[in-house]
């Protein structure tokens, strides 16, 4: 990689790190927000949905904004928006104001998410080798940094507003460090893209596969502790399932570029889908909670590089401009995160949580088998 390419790669990684840090810093604030506004659990669920709605509305138009104004402007302005809004999450005094703040924060996060992925697709193409897993790995690292740092500051007794300002300042510094070498202009073929295009061709399949993976990831986040405590693990230990999954996913992504470069995207999708499916089956069939933990590790390892490979495929397909394709699959995929808790809850109520996890296993199996054909159809993998 030449010097300019290296700088662009580092800037892209910093943008992913900043986004992951900003997003995860909100999680430790949720109990404080609930206590401050006095809402019940059901009302809190509706408020949290405002964040997702903001993201969903912002994502479809971000691709064309990045194409017309350049990734640098969109990334920096959306990152600045995250930093400006975040402290208000610590002080919003009522449910309506908290919902509005979450909506604005979600819109900024959604815009940042799509624009940095557009940048990642362009940089990876220019590099000519696999980089996407590493980019997404930095987002996962940011998730650990954000949630861990915020929790540590609050545990040490720091005022919640001060802690929020510290995290906003940290994200701002990351964005400023990334800024000088973010892409100022999109490729010429992207600049005349229409404002909105209905997803078509390979983009639809890629988006649906992303949705299934995000649904599975969201299920682990929301339901792993319930699953483990239902088979004998204490409430204090229930979070170990998601922790095992998150660590495995982060390690898998940080090492994913070398693996994708060696094996090719199609094999990663096939083997990753099979591994994640096997992990879900282990969780379902394990006779004890402790024997189920390796299943969550396997889910994290298997799923870690599927979405990065799918984003690479979105940038290589010929059915739509790359920027619009990334916007489309982000929007479709994010629907899986929003729908995940409710869908799994409904299935668990109807047939039991173990059977719901078995359905997820079958879904990941289908992702692996479908992905084998999806990536070549998108032109994202030339390896046999």
From TrEMBL:
Repressor found in the keyword field: no
Gene3D superfamilies (UniProt xref): MFS general substrate transporter like domains
SUPFAM superfamilies (alphabetical): MFS general substrate transporter
Major facilitator superfamily (MFS) profile domain ranges (all copies): 1-379
Record-linked CDD domains: MFS_MosC_like
Keyword Transmembrane set for record: yes
Pfam assignment, any one: MFS_1
Protein name: MFS transporter
